[in-house]
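Tutorial, part two.
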Amino acid sequence: MSLRPSGSAPELRRGRPSSAEPISFTAAGGESEASRPVSASPPSRQSLAFDIRRLARADTQESPLNVGNSSSMSTGSAREPLSGSRKIIGGMQALGNQQQYRELSNLISQLQGQRDADRRRLVQMERRIEAQLEERLHVGDGRERWAETQGNVNGLLEDMQAMRLRIDGVEPRLLAKLSESSGEAKQRLGELGQQVQALEQKNRLAAATIEETQRRQVGKLRRSEQSLEELLQRMSAAEEELRSRPARNGRSGQGFDPSLEGRMRGLEQHQEYFDASVRALQLQVEQAVQSAAEAAEDAVRSAESVTGNRGAGLSDIDDEARLASERGLVALEKRLSGQVQDLSSAMASLRVKVDGQLQRLSSVAERLET
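Running the prediction step on this input gives:
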């Protein structure tokens, strides 16, 4: 005779406890064991106790898998995923922001695998219990044994439900942990953005100061060019005056006007002053370029220190900020190099003009002496 559970086995396999509906086994002919007629006279207490002891001894001798083992297996199977989930949650607390997002899927898959394994174990246990119940029901009246087995099955279902609740409670904890980590990441990103903005402001101030110094130097160069042009005009006027003045006493170069000698001395002094001003201007340009380079190096160092003090979970964002700051510094260096080249070319042209003026002065002096 084969027994079939009516109504409760599918629910047990799906992991849904049904404590309200009792489990009843139905024979192949459609007649349940519980509905069979029992003797009208109830057994005495001594005979009932003797039958219970006899069934317990027969159970321990014949089947190694008793109800105690099933309960221990149920509790063990219920504790295994709990301890595993605690270990996994404890390990996730030490991971970084990037590894947490990757380990979430692994954790959920592991929990689902453990749940499926527990369900398979419960299904196997149900099959074994059904086989044992079929064997015991053939022996005699097993109502007490059946009630005990039903209680054990209900306990297993309750343990399974508690385990499901605990597994469901893991998900909000993980979400809370993720929200906390995302809040910390946003705060760090905000601080990093503020520091990058401060660095950009410093770079802008440095560029403004460099442009201002360049404007001043350009103004000085223009003034020096104007003074050179005036000096050239004076020199040309002096040459024309010397050429128009006839020679005296039959000898060239004797008895020239002392006012002309004073003018020549004044021109030489003015030329020396102009040369000194050009040298001072060159020193100022070099100092401005050096200060701009030092400011750029300080900005790079501060950016590196800021990015070095951050955690490993924000490495991609730190690299992007560092690249942006480096690009700004490279553009600033290009502008500085262009301005320095312009200034150097202007200085070279001024030097050429000054050298030509000196040569002309020396030639005029030689003519005056001869």
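Confidence is low (pLDDT under 50) at residues 1-43, 62-82, 247-256, 310-314. In part three we will examine how such features are distributed along the chain.
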